[in-house]
Amino acid sequence: MIKAAVIDNGIVGLRESYLDQPHVQYDFLPTHQATAPDFSPYDLLVVPNGTDQVAMYHWREAVQRFLNQGKTLFCFDGWFTHWLPGSQWVADNSKKTIDIRYTLKADRYGLFEGVDLNHFIFSNGISGWWACGYIQPAPRAEVVVADTWGRCIMLLDEQTTPGTIFATASGPLGDYAYGTTDDAGSMEGLTRLYHNLLTKLIKTPVS
Amino acid sequence: MIGLLFNGVWSQYAFAKAGKYQHLYRLLYIHDLTEASLQGLKAIAVPFQSNQAAIRERKGLIYNFLKQGGKVFVAGDSTADWLDAQWEDRPVNNYWWVKDPTNPPVSQTDYSHPVYEGLSVRHACWHTHGVYTRIPEHARIVQTNGRGEVISWETNHYGGTLFVTTLDPIVEHGIQQITHLDHYVDKLTEWLCGVKPEGQFEMQAADYGVAWEND
């Protein structure tokens, strides 16, 4: 059983996106508290799409301690504040969404088993729906998916800290993606990829 | 100057940092909001993806601002804990313009409202996040969908003007995936503060990877 913490800033649709299942159980940690939550009981910290990035900046040292314990961080949001170790997300509107395509660059863990990358490119026939901006990866991080211009859209970083970081350029992953897509293929793709992350990346599940 | 209630969401931040809007909007982090935060503002904007529970705890500040004659704009979802209305979720159709372009999610708009005056049908609606199934008796309906459900409404009952919509102009403009939103947002901004934004929506890489200034 994976014990996971989800950062919760009260936005609509968040709690429906992470549902308890036999292999994973979630606690939702509200962002109104001044002091950082205790992440130590958890195997996984999920920073979902639409997160309070001000709170994450305030809690950056707690995140670093969590990763120093060899645990796993998923960030599916645009982190405009500087808290995620090594890598940085940047917003950008210089490219047209109609031109956005993604390429799988590396997948040592088989994260894309059963996942069609085209479902992340097109939703209801429209491209560029999933991610925003790009990631400046840490020097030793692995670019998993790149966009049309070779910019990092998904990264896996097992080098910068003793833990594991998987991040997207604000592309939502989970059991649901409120308001983002209702395309059956896109929904299946992002859910399957998310559960592949859970089963293939978490190294220290607590039984 | 317009106060933008801020839930730490990147699209809210990106909007407030954009070159054409940064001198007109001030981010007000919701957990730090006080009476002093609102001093000197002409309007408050409550964007989609706000923290409804945190707003409920501070609703007195908002209604006091209205009482003093200010304008308050509420976008996206809300709760009846702080707004005398009932919002309900509905599936988001953000592809109608490809699949069924003659059938947008809003079917009726009062184009005499200052925000909508001069806007085309396409610019007055892109997609909606739910509907209002109940609005105050003193409210005026501004937009409805094809089922007659309320999308946008307004009231002067509280002193100033409260304008509420399930459109999401600020968050969506911050995301920058819809290219025509300058039309709506510029009209909204001018209505809220009296100044028409000029220039382009520019994103600067230097605004990303920042320390939070109030830290």
UniProtKB/TrEMBL annotation, chain A:
InterPro entries: Class_I_gatase-like (IPR029062)
SUPFAM superfamilies named among the record's database cross-references: Class I glutamine amidotransferase-like
Protein name, entry field: Glutamine amidotransferase domain-containing protein
Protein source organism: Phaeodactylibacter xiamenensis
From TrEMBL, chain B:
Protein name (record): ThuA-like domain-containing protein
Species in which this protein is naturally found: Phaeodactylibacter xiamenensis
